[in-house]
Amino acid sequence: MGPRLPHLGSFVEWMAAAFVATAVLWVGFTWAGPWLTRVPSSVSVEANQVPAGVPGNAQSVPLLVLIDGTAIRVGDTQVDIHARLGEAPDDPEPQASRGALGDRLIRSYLRQGTRFFLVCERTEPGGPIRVSRIYLPR
Question: Is residue 52 part of a domain?
Answer without folding.
Answer: yes
